[in-house]
């Protein structure tokens, strides 16, 4: 695919993400995202491409259109061509809300979508290993997709311990106890991390209270050694609290899987039919378009005590038509007509 690089929209540890315009828009979207890296991040991009190719198509996972290499300003770059998310990530959306979280109805929808993506990842033998709001992309239609598979790894049976020695894989605020204590990175780490993401999505605050600039080793001790668990928001519904309690189980063998969590009542929502509400808590409700007269929020049926008219069922079409006939005629002389079709 030939493409033209546009503005930069994101930065990673070893990569830069830019908008790009494909030359051939008949086979590809008008806009794509290109993740580029020099030689230091080439291995991560190669791993991401390999994982995405293995996972195949899944509507809850960002699409990959291929990879190539370019030379720009005298520097050789590896590029990964990805689906473009016009609304950025859930992390960037929350930053715009000034510490507020999303309404629980929206959190439930996003939660179900991400769980469906995780189920697909896990069932294909992979663990993402870096689930966080910054890696969950938001699209213009309100859907979300999992992105950034640079740290994803293949899981071989029950063997989850890394063979690469002691490593910090992922983001400390989202790390699971088994990763901290035993250097294990299986599918269960994604469930723990996603529980932290759900807390942040709803409350606007991280699941662990941690000040920027603090020694992150103290955080890892709290996660791995102490009995402390991430704080579950008190404002969350009982269903939501129970859902998170299934994610925040220190023993990863007793922690619920993505498949099990998809059967939890917290995510019993219809992603196809339920109206998508993006109202921020504390703001005036944004209403979806009504589909019938009874869906207007301010519509009320008022029966007047002074009215003497009572409903009488009419048996035949003739009777129904006669009930509409009156002696007055409409005034068609009004000049302020508006052409609508």
TrEMBL record:
Gene3D superfamilies: Transferase(Phosphotransferase) domain 1. The keyword Transferase applies. The keyword Metal-binding does not apply. GO terms for cellular component: cytoplasm; nucleus. It comes from the Eukaryota. Pfam families: Pkinase (PF00069). Keywords: ATP-binding, Kinase, Nucleotide-binding, Serine/threonine-protein kinase, Transferase. Residues 3-267 form the Protein kinase domain. One of its GO terms (biological process) is cell division. ATP binds at residue 35. SUPFAM superfamilies: Protein kinase-like (PK-like). GO terms for molecular function: ATP binding; MAP kinase kinase activity; protein kinase binding; protein serine/threonine kinase activity. Belongs to the protein kinase superfamily. This is Protein kinase domain-containing protein. It comes from Arabis alpina.
């Amino acid at each position: 695919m030939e493409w033209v690089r546009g503005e930069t929209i994101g930065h990673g540890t070893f990569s830069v993400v830019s908008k790009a315009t494909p030359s051939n828009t008949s086979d590809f979207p008008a806009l794509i995202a290109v993740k580029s890296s020099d030689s230091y991040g080439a291995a991560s991009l190669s791993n991401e491409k390999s994982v995405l190719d293995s996972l195949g198509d899944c509507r809850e996972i960002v699409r990959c259109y291929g990879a190539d290499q370019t030379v720009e300003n005298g520097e050789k770059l590896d590029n990964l061509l990805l689906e473009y998310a016009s609304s950025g990530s859930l992390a960037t959306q929350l930053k715009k809300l000034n510490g507020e979280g999303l309404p629980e109805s929206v959190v439930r929808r996003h939660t179900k979508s991400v769980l469906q993506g995780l189920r697909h990842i896990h069932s294909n033998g992979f663990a993402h290993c870096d689930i966080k709001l910054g890696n969950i992309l938001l699209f213009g239609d309100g859907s979300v997709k999992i992105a950034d598979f640079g740290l994803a790894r293949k899981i071989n049976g029950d063997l989850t311990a890394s063979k690469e020695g002691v490593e910090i894989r992922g983001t400390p605020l989202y790390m699971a106890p088994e990763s901290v204590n035993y250097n294990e990175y299986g599918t269960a780490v994604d469930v723990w991390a996603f529980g932290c993401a759900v807390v942040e999505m709803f409350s606007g605050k991280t699941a662990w209270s941690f000040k920027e600039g603090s020694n992150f080793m103290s955080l890892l001790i709290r996660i791995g050694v102490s009995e402390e668990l991430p704080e579950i928001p008190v404002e969350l519904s009982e269903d939501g609290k129970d859902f998170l309690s299934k994610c925040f189980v220190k023993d990863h063998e007793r922690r619920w899987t993505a498949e099990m969590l998809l059967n939890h009542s917290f995510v019993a929502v219809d992603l196809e039919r339920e109206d998508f509400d993006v109202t921020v808590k504390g703001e005036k409700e944004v209403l979806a378009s009504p589909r019938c007269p009874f869906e207007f929020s301010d519509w009320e049926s008022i029966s007047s005590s002074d009215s003497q008219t009572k409903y009488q069922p009419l048996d035949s079409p003739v009777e129904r038509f006669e009930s509409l006939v009156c002696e007055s005629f409409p005034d068609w002389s009004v000049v302020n007509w508006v052409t609508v079709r």
